[in-house]
Amino acid sequence: MQDVCQSARARHDPCKPNPHGAAVPARAAPVPPSMDRLPTPLILALADAAPADWRAAVEQALPHPPMAPARLHLVRCSEAAAPEEVIVLADAPGDALAAALAPCGGTPPGPVLLLTPPPAPEADLAMLAARAATLGVHHWAALPTAALTPAAVALARAQARAAAERERGLREALAGAQARLDERKWVERAKGVLMSARGIDEDAAFRLLRGAAMNVNLRVGELARAVFESARWADAMNRAGQLRMLSQRCVRLAAQRLLRIDVREAAALSAQTAQRVRENLGVLAPQCADGPAAPACAAAQAAWDALAQALAAPRAELAALHEIDRRAGALLQAAEALTEALQEAAGRRALRIVNECGRQRLRVQCIAKDSLLAALQPSPAEAEALARRRDTALGEFERALRELEDAPLSTPDIRATLAQVHDEWLRLLAGLRGAARSDGRRAVVHASEVLVERLDALTAAYEHSLQVLMG
To answer: What is the pLDDT of residue 253?
Structure first.
């Protein structure tokens, strides 16, 4: 019976040879039986000691010959070759029947009729009937051999078929109800996303979903699921992108304290930065679990653990700062790999702009960090490398800013936030021109923090935009 159950569920399985060497040819897909034509059955004899005239009596009662010999394991082809009906000949609904039907999980591929002799007077009929029903038997007829007339067999087959049809209808109704319930859940989740992201009420959120679904010719539930999943992916990418920026902020704050620039504020911001990294990793870990981004998430966690250990050590020496910078670079690389893995796993092109906007925060922190490191009297080679790295980040920031300003994905809120980002960028450039002085370095620190706040708001605006949510 296991082969029957597997073959009924297979979708593309070529005809295979049976254990006796002869191939069982695949048949055309079975036509649903009508009331005047019962399906051609497959007879399964489980009782080796059953009288030989039992099988003969059943075959004589059939309008057509059975489709296969007595051993069910000969049926090994595709769904089209699965039996339309199974007639089981057994002594009782015992272990042999359980072994034959158990692989089907209670849902055989077609009607199952069980024919047995009358049970013994002391038999527990309720237990036997319950066991047969649990295994997937649709009708159990306990008849003596003399009663196996064509009329009796035809009636038993019709009863099994009617029970199977009713069971199939109930399963379909249950599946439909479950699908409608799932769709309703997705709609409620998507409405919550839109209400939070767009600041609208529940009715407006549903109208938005319904209108968008009509535009793209999808059911509301299908679009609602896509909206909710897009929101989750966008949030995950935003958090992974923040890790890149936070890694470099850790170095900048360590350099800031070494240079005695707003030491108390830098210490408080360092604690907030560490807490933010931990929160982001805590949210990302379960979302990435068992997915393609899981290795990258684990690598980011390991890199942060190493960086946190370096941050906890005394920081009064330049050597400690270099170690912090090295470990922060490892976290940056891991966070970059995690962000790219999330974008690839999401498969949504609209999320690219969330990634690019988040990368702007990283560039700002790199620029500020390198400006402070340059004030710590590096060697000529180190100073040249810092200047080159800073100039590269400056060019990349300006290029990306132009792309964001020219992008069609825009709203009044996004355009207003972009204008604020542009203004703060000019202030940061002004501070960089005086970075050789202490007041210039303080201006760089302040401008970089304000600019990151503006970019956080811009990234959130892209994350919550309809184009990103609706994909």
So the answer is: 95
Judged on CB neighbours under 10 Å (0-12, 13-18, 19+), 80 is: middle
Same domain, 464 and 411: yes
pLDDT of residue 421: 94
Say how many C-beta atoms besides its own lie within 10 A of residue 48's C-beta: 7
Q: Sign of the C-alpha dihedral, residues 447, 452, 455, 460?
A: negative
Last residue in a domain, options 172, 203, 231:
172
- Which segments of 117-236 are extended strands (E)? 139-142
CATH (domain of 14): 3.40.50
Q: How many CB atoms lie within 10 A of CB 72?
A: 21
Residues 202 and 253 in one domain: no
Enclosing H/E stretch for 45: strand 41-45
Q: Which residues have C-beta within 8 Å of that of residue 311, sequence separation ≥ 6?
A: 250, 254, 270, 274, 324
245 shares its domain with 332: yes
How many Å is the Cα radius of gyration of the chain?
35
For residue 82, what pLDDT is reported?
57
CB 140 within 8 A of CB 116: yes
Regarding whether 93 and 196 lie in a shared domain, the answer is no
- If you search the block for the tokens 């966070």, which residue do you land on? 335
| Cβ 113 vs Cβ 139: under 8 Å | yes
Model confidence over 278-320: pLDDT tens digits? 999 999 999 898 889 999 999 999 999 999 999 988 766 788 8
Please indicate, yes or no, whether residues 303 and 356 belong to a single structural domain of this protein. yes
Confidence of residue 273 (pLDDT cuts 50, 70, 90): very high
pLDDT at 125: 85
State how many domains the chain has: 3
What's the domain range around 438? 220-469
Whether residues 118 and 192 share a domain: the answer is no
Residues 57 and 122 in one domain: yes
Same domain, 376 and 227: yes
Q: Is pTM, for the whole model, over 0.70?
A: no
Distance CA 40, CA 111 (A): 11
Cα–Cα dist 207/184, whole Å? 15
Show Cβ contacts of residue 352 under 8 Å, excluding neighbours closer than 6 positions: 343
* Average pLDDT of the chain, as a whole number: 81
Taking alpha carbons only, the member of 197, 194, 239 closest to residue 213 is 194
Which residue type does 279 have? Answer: E
**Tens-place pLDDT, residues 410-438:** 788 889 999 999 999 999 999 999 988 99
DSSP 3-state of 12: coil
